[in-house]
Sequence to fold (347 residues):
Amino acid sequence: MVSRSLRRSNPIMLVLTLMLVLGFMLFILTPDKSDIAPKKTVPPTKNRKPPPVLRYHMNGLKATKDPVGNKEKVIILTPLARFYDEYWQNLLKLTYPRELTELGFIIPKGREGNLALSKLQDAVHKVQTGKKKEQFAKVTILRQDFDSPISQNEKDRHELSAQKSRRAAMSRARNSLLFSVLRPDISWVLWLDGDIVETPPTLIQDLASHDKALIVPNCYQRYKEKGVSKIRPYDYNSWHDSKEALKLAETMGKDEILLEGYHEMATYRYLMTAEYDPKGDKHAETPLDGVGGTALLVKAEVHRDGAMFPPFPFYHLIESEGFAKMARRLGYQPYGLPNYLIYHYNE
Fold:
């Protein structure tokens, strides 16, 4: 009985199997409609415009003592942790032609950075949507991709224990900004800290007139004592080296740094702040071994030749002082103007 039942069902099974095989083969061999749909015709290459090729004759790029007359482009770079309206208003008072001036900012992560960014964007928008002659040639705003190691209040950021990490982070921010915005037609770079609130309007022209590879003014701070307005030194990073400092460096570990302005670390360097003479020549020059970064004018070729702000100990120096050492190793002598004052915000 069982064997007869299986034999009677065999023809049906064969038919079903054959139909499944034919259906599967039909599905596989039938072309997709998308394959037979008409394709868009690609226009011949000869009708396309080639992408633009920009050529810069770098040998003809100059940074001279008359940057306005020679129409030399300047970029003002500012690491901006806080937005001070006094900084912005002072920046707008600079008389260097706006069509030759670019701005670049880098802002830290976090709540304070967000607030600074919001205020900066509002200020930039107001200028860049205003009169054409008052607009800057270009404005770039970057955000840091790393956290600031300490808070931005003045007391915390000037603690001796915070200096290595703080200034390493500042170096990273400066380098990120510099490498992102330095275009081939820029002649000068003005580093201007976001807490510099008072400079002469002719700051760029005045510094450039000395025709130095890198040059710094003297950074002071205004304050009041018993209602009397006074000034005091602020930036101690512009200095002449000393034998004592060099000997001290020889005893330090490879990851240790020398710092200025701290009684715990007596370097006996001669500071440019001590050279200020209120009756002296405003444009008197002095060669320096270290420079501060509160306001620093640099010929762009110095950066292009490789001088940057080391975020690591470089000959036991870091950030702007390390930059000065690196520039000197490349053959560029830093200079300072002891009697040319700019002023830092007083918190």
About this structure: Residues 1-8, 33-38 have pLDDT under 50 and may be disordered. The radius of gyration is 32 Å. Residues 2-29 form the longest helix (28 residues). The chain has ten helices and twelve strands.
